Amino acid sequence: MKKEDLTIAVTLGDATGIGPELIVKSFQDSSIRDLATWVIIGDKRVLKQGEEIAGATLDVIEIDHVEQATTNKGSMYFINLANLDPSEYTLGTLSPNSGKVTGETLKYVLDLAKSKKIDGVVYAPLNKEALHRGGHHFQDELHFFADLLDCKEGFSEINVMNKLWVTRATSHIALKNVSENITKERIVQRIRFADATLKSAGYENPKIVVSALNPHAGEGGMLGNEEIDHIIPAITEMQAEGINVHGPYPADTLFLRLEKDPFDCLLAMYHDQAQTGMKLLGFNRGVTMSGGLPITLTTPAHGTAFDIAGKGTADPGATKEAIKMAVRMNS
Predict the structure, then answer these.
(1) Which of 17, 172, 223, 310 could bridge 140 with an S-S bond, Cβ 3.0-4.6 Å?
(2) Average pLDDT of 152-173?
């Protein structure tokens, strides 16, 4: 059930990147702050470093347990885990220790979610290699979250940029393994996931467009059979269920279709097929959401940006959008 008074947890992301700076900058905006009650969770020293980089401060109330956070829109609390000393890492440099702590902090937050003590999670950018080298051995953060939340199936990642939602049949796998993972069952699951997610965000009858895998949608089998064997049968089955889904369309013109035949959600077949076009539309506004889990988790669609870490130039636009999306999916 949707709630009006929300308590949303926020993490600082990988401390070696731009995450702490983004969180500090984002909550300078009163229109963002006033959307919910916020509980930032991490190391207070890392937050302070983020404040110094951002050239701003956050007025937070330090608490020991989330139960001490009184629901009051605009209030900001901080739980200090005291688990990462900035002297132990270098800004802009991958740190296994920072990756280890990033994962441990997320475990703390998701335990709160499992206990229904928070309504959503916004996490600043992570670094997958740092997480892995820090001992968290998962395919990506989505599978990390799903494992911690005891979720076995039905989950997927979805990106949002302005009014366009984008999800994928496959995600963080090698390109050579994509074809063998394109099955009718997987496409059906992803179409249902997209339809349910957009409806939960307020769309009555979302229009979903499906990408082909092969050039020119396979040219009737001349350039590949995945469309004939798997993608088209999945689309046909979902249309019979009443889902507003269309395709498959060649990937090289998909984003051009937005101008003449707008749609709400794109189901791509693999990571870069989706992400390249979406990021060209607006890199500083994209949001990544882990959907199909018991709790909504959102993050900016960009990464830790080691090249600008510590310079104070990070754009908080996508982080603000991630914050707004966490509220939208629970309101």
Answers:
(1) 172
(2) 88
Question: What's this model's pTM, rounded to 2 decimal places?
Answer: 0.87
Place of tokens 């940006």: 305
pLDDT band (50, 70, 90) for residue 1: very low
State percent of the chain over pLDDT 90: 77
HSE-CB for 246 with a 13 A CA cutoff: 15
CATH number for position 33: 3.40.718.10
**Mean confidence (pLDDT) of the chain:** 93
For residue 282, is it within any domain? no
Question: Which residues, including other chains, have CB under 8 Å from residue 279's CB and lie 6 or more apart?
Answer: 161, 286, 301, 302
Show contacts of 66-69: CB within 8 Å, 24+ apart: 66/7, 66/9, 66/39, 66/112, 66/117, 66/118, 67/117, 69/7, 69/37, 69/39
Residue with tokens 């997927």: 156
- Domain membership of residue 35 as a residue range: 7-154+288-328
Distance set, CA 241 to CA 190, 191, 199 (Å): 14, 11, 15
- pLDDT, tens digit, 9 for 90 and up, residues 229-266: 999 999 999 999 999 999 999 999 988 888 889 999 99
Helices (H) and strands (E) counted in the chain, each on its own, are 12, 12
Domain check: are 322 and 264 in the same one?
no
- What's the pLDDT at 155? 85
Where does a domain end: 239, 254, 276?
A: 276
Using alpha carbons, select from 240, 320, 251 the residue that is nearest to residue 29.
320
Q: Are residues 51 and 142 in the same domain?
A: yes
Q: What is the pLDDT of residues 51-69, one digit of tens each?
A: 999 999 999 999 999 999 9
Q: Are strands 245-249 and 208-211 parallel, antiparallel or unpaired?
A: parallel
Strands 296-300 and 287-291, sheet pairing: antiparallel
Query: H-helix or E-strand containing 121?
Result: strand 120-123
